[in-house]
Write a structure and sequence with these properties.
1007 residues; alpha+beta; Methylamine Dehydrogenase, Chain H; Immunoglobulin-like; Heat Shock Protein 90; five-stranded mixed sheet; 10 helices; 18% helix; elongated
């Protein structure tokens, strides 16, 4: 992981964000001794009771790959090596934890005092208890320790402190200090000072500096003990401004990335030394304990401190505070002013405070301050400082305070406090004075009042801003914004009397433009128009205490919810489109912002270097827009645990969860320690979620009732600066199916359903076929009876009548007359016989024993040729099958009607007739004639029932009738009859039963 920036050494320690985890609050079981970070981003804390893993939010006991807890033994020191392993030093020996596999390096108890990694990546340790006679300095090689002792040039029996300098030398601390390199001679130091300490630690800790220099902590205090510094072959007590190494009982050392030296002491807290100056931070300042055990700097540059009573974190923030701890005279800041020489003036109670180069000085009464409460501040173009002091208006020039006088030369009696001071382009100074009952505006020139303007028409005037065109702007504490120019005062109400609306700061812009910070948002007045930028436009909160613009034209708002910044282009877009939602960057309390309303003008200021300053009645705060050190380290993301129905599983790929898993929780984390509460996540469960989910800062994903399948869970995260780790972490897992959720069971169910549907369908078809067969049998019996009646009655009668007529013709007395009558009778009876025979044939044709549709269609085609010149073709496909007579008759009538229509009405030259025996019976009649009009095709022709009859016959026998007609291609009529209805596909016994039943029904009607 690429390291981030360091904690800024130019700040006081008290100006860092400081977080504490205390033993007494239950964060740890026992005293934390050491802290380290592994390559995967986790922090590890070694305590007297064992090893903990920390992700910035949760402390968890360390476990191995088998889920076993790390032994509860005291841990002296830790090292996160470059290969991702964690090295652990205990009173019992050395261990390595890598990928949750624990390796112990010695079966003989030896006390490990220091662990380092050299420039080649080799791990070295010192041992303060040596029982195997192998020497105090060892390096890890494979799964063994190779140790060096007196035979190798190391003259001590035990080792404590250990470091490698920039020249590749190892420094081993003991009751003497040894400088050693493998294969070369060693050199010892502090024999005189430390020999009497033999058997005691002696050199407790070491830290390497530049060019082979080294800092050493010697046990105890005194002229030759304490913190010493080696450079240029000489050792010196380390003394800088604010720190004397001989008087400090040091315990541990750290050189951070900005080369600042951090010193943890046994009972005096924490020191930091940079550029020859020392800064101190102890329990009185909030450190968990004055007894410091260890120091560590993480990948983001944050500094960690372990003490007897907890763990402390120090980190940079974009917003820096200056309080009484840094030197302010009091915690009651009224106003702030950045002068042209870079000094920042703070109006306070009892003093005028000055911040120069990060250092604070105070001008109090003993330094000539002629008053108690410093109120409004202003610097004119000549560099003079104007200030309201109690009820006086003063000028500070060359270390002297001069009182502004009235026109008559007497001291100005303001009658109230000076809340605001400004200057216009004509070099006039304007001062706002607010008394118990009256409010006045004074115009001053050459430190004398030239004009006094009562402001009786404006309730509670409080803010002033110079108008670049001339004159000034005036704002009340309410909603009144006024312009005073050339003796004329023009006022307008911004909220029309809304008492909840208050103007809280005022800044003039170029031209006829002014910005006002209000309780309802940001107001911009320009050329007689004003608009309000509020939460509907993207502001996270409405109440704004003060505002200022930076060198790039961005506006900074000191608001109730933090320090907000909006770029100039965003403001321009909002001015053109009042409904535009602006992009806002927010610095909240985690970034150091402590916004509250100031009391007097100005409450915000910009220094020549671009730094922005604010006051909040307690402290002064600064942000530098040109040096906002961003945390560019993307946070490592890890999936830690899976809980399935409240049972925990280690997160690993191809995790298999049991069947019927109902409640699933996936715990994940992102390792950013600068501001863990601002780390945001996105996750997606592939196979379930269609898009990324936005849980915010929540570190669990919860699902319920996942169906059995394979899934892949992905999670990504960003740090407090919005830098995303888009690779994130992923976890492939599956939910096993229950027996009834398997593919085999599902296939069986599908097959069963299909079989059941098929069986029901077949049963229904058989039921329909049986019902139709019964109806057809009844019709057949009735038609047979009618045919017999016709044959036995009508036809015989007609035949007898014809015989009588023929006989009369032979025996008539009036031959001529009788012959004529009989001839007529004969003709008439002959025609009746022919018609009767034709009707009889039409009733009995389909019941012939030949059972041949093809022959019937051929006769119909021949009859067609007698009345029409159309060419006809006829084809039969498939093997003829036995058909039910009634169904066959209906099919014949449909085909016959189609053939007759083609002959009579198509006006075509060609006709095709096809009869197909297959799974179903199909009849197709097609011609190339003029087609059938759509209206006729849909509704039929008046007085004609051919098409209607065809459809009715098809419906009665369950056939599918299709009629396709076109004026271009002619007409095609197709009838498809299900084979289960028309063909006799039944067993022989069933066939003979039906045949016998038909015979029994017809027997009584035979002669």
């Amino acid at each position: 992981m690429k390291p981030g920036w360091s904690v800024d050494p130019n700040r006081r320690i008290s100006q860092y964000a400081h977080t504490v985890w205390n033993v007494k609050d239950g964060a740890f079981d026992d005293t934390p001794n050491a802290i380290a970070q592994t390559k995967d981003g986790y922090l590890w804390i070694g305590t007297l009771a064992g090893l903990l893993r920390f992700d910035g939010v949760r402390f968890a006991p360390a476990t191995t790959a088998e889920g076993q807890l790390f032994p509860r033994v005291p841990i002296n020191n830790l090292l996160g090596a470059s290969d991702g392993s964690l090295w652990i030093g205990t009173p019992s020996g050395l261990s390595r934890l890598k990928e949750r596999e624990l390796l112990n390096y010695s079966s003989t108890p030896v006390g490990i005092s220091s662990i380092i990694e050299d420039h080649t990546g080799t791990v070295w340790v010192t041992r303060y208890r040596v029982t195997d006679g192998k020497g105090p300095l060892c390096k890890a090689t494979g799964k063994e320790l190779h140790c060096y002792g007196k035979a190798d040039g190391i003259p001590v029996e035990y080792g404590v402190g250990l470091t490698e300098d920039s020249l590749g030398n190892f420094w081993v601390g003991s009751y003497v200090l040894t400088r050693w390199r493998p294969g070369s001679s060693s050199k010892t130091y502090f024999e005189e000072e430390l020999t009497h300490l033999k058997g005691r630690p002696g050199v407790i800790d070491l830290a390497a500096g530049p060019a082979g220099s080294v800092w050493a902590v010697l046990e105890g205090v005194g002229p030759k003990l304490g913190v010493r510094y080696f450079s240029g072959q000489s050792w010196n007590s380390y003394v800088v401004h604010g720190f004397d190494g001989a008087k400090v009982k040091g315990h541990c050392l750290l050189v951070d990335r900005d080369h600042a030296l951090w010193i943890g002491t046994e009972n005096q807290g924490l020191y930091r030394i940079h550029d020859g100056r020392a800064d101190h931070f102890g329990s009185a300042d909030g450190l968990s304990s004055d007894s410091v055990n260890g120091l560590f700097q993480d990948n983001e540059g944050n500094l960690w401190v372990t003490t007897d009573w907890g763990v402390d974190l120090f980190r940079n923030t974009p917003v820096i505070s200056f309080s009484t701890r840094e030197g302010l005279s009091a915690g009651s800041t009224h106003s702030i002013l950045a002068s042209h020489d870079g000094s920042v003036w703070v109006g306070n109670v009892g003093a005028l405070d000055v911040i120069r180069n990060g250092e604070i000085s105070n001008i109090k009464s003993r330094h000539g301050l002629p008053g108690e409460v410093v109120q409004a501040l202003f610097e004119d173009k000549s560099g003079h400082l104007w200030l309201g002091l109690d009820d006086k208006l003063m000028v500070y020039d060359n270390g002297k305070f001069l009182e502004v006088k009235n026109r008559d030369g007497r001291a100005l009696a303001t009658g109230g406090g000076v809340s605001a001071i400004t200057g216009d382009r004509e070099q006039n100074i304007w001062a706002m004075v607010s008394g118990p009952r009256t409010h006045h505006l004074f115009r001053i020139r050459h430190q004398r009042v030239r004009e006094e303007i009562p402001l009786a028409g404006i309730a509670y005037p409080e803010w002033l801003a110079a108008d670049p065109r001339g004159g000034i702007w005036i704002a009340s504490y309410g909603d009144v914004l006024a312009s005073y120019r050339d003796g004329h005062l023009e006022a307008t109400s911004l909220a029309h009397g809304d008492r909840s609306f208050t103007i809280q700061s005022l800044v003039a812009d170029g031209g006829n433009s002014v910005w006002a910070a209000t309780s309802k948002g940001l107001v911009h007045w320009s050329d007689g128009r004003w608009k309000l930028l509020d939460t509907q436009n993207g502001l996270p909160c409405s109440s704004i205490f003060s505002l200022i613009k930076d060198d790039d034209g961005s506006v900074w708002l000191y608001a109730q919810c933090g320090l907000l910044t909006i770029s100039g282009p965003e403001l321009n877009r909002w001015w053109e489109r009042p409904d535009h939602k602006v992009a806002v960057t927010v610095f909240d309390s985690l970034d150091g912002a402590q916004p509250r309303r100031g009391r007097q003008q100005p409450t915000a200021a910009k220094s020549p270097s671009g730094q922005l300053w604010f006051v909040n009645n307690t402290v002064a705060q600064m942000v530098d827009p040109n040096h906002l050190n961003r945390n560019e380290v993307p946070p490592p993301v890890h999936i830690e645990e899976v809980l399935a129905d409240h049972k925990g599983y280690l997160a690993h790929n191809d995790l298999r969860l049991p069947a019927l898993t109902r409640d699933l929780e996936i715990d994940y984390t992102a390792l950013s320690f600068s501001a863990p509460k601002k780390v945001r996540f996105r996750y997606k469960l592939e196979g379930r979620d269609g898009d990324w989910q936005e849980p915010g800062t929540r570190r669990q994903a919860i699902y319920s009732d996942l169906p059995p399948a394979r899934y892949r869970f992905r999670v990504i995260a960003c740090n407090n600066e919005g830098v995303w780790n888009t690779d994130g972490a992923s976890l492939a897992f599956s939910v096993a199916p229950a027996w009834y959720q398997t593919s085999a069971f599902r296939s069986l169910c599908i097959g069963s359903v299909i079989f059941l549907v098929w069986a029901i369908y077949r049963l229904r078809v058989r039921q329909v076929a049986n019902a139709m067969s019964v109806r057809f049998d009844e019709r057949l019996a009735e038609r047979t009876r009618m045919a017999r009646e016709l044959h036995d009655t009508l036809l015989q009668t007609i035949q007898g009548s014809k015989l009588v007529a023929d006989d009369a013709l032979e025996k008539s007395s009036d031959p001529v007359r009788t012959r004529q009558a009989l001839e007529h009778l004969s003709d008439w009876l002959g025609r009746a016989a022919e018609e009767g025979r034709a009707a009889l044939n039409s009733l009995r044709t389909s019941t012939t024993q030949r059972n041949d549709l093809a022959e019937g269609f051929q006769r119909a085609i021949q009859e067609c040729r007698l009345h029409s010149p159309i060419e006809a073709s006829f084809a039969v496909a498939g093997e003829m099958q036995d058909m039910h007579p009634v169904v066959r008759d209906e099919v014949f009538r449909i085909g016959y009607e189609a053939i007759r229509n083609a002959c009579a009405h198509s006006h075509g030259s060609r006709m095709e007739v096809e009869l197909t025996y297959a799974q179903d019976l199909t009849v197709r009649v097609a011609d190339n004639g003029v087609g059938i009009a759509p209206a006729v095709l849909d509704q039929g022709r008046d007085g004609h029932f051919g098409l209607q009859g065809m459809r009715e016959r098809a419906a009665r026998i369950g056939a599918k009738l299709t009629i396709v007609s076109s004026g271009e291609f002619g007409t095609q009529i197709t009838a498809v009859v299900p084979g289960s209805i028309v063909f006799r596909r039944i067993g022989a016994s069933r066939f003979w039963k039906i045949k016998t039943r038909l015979k029994r029904k017809s027997r009584p009607h035979q002669n």
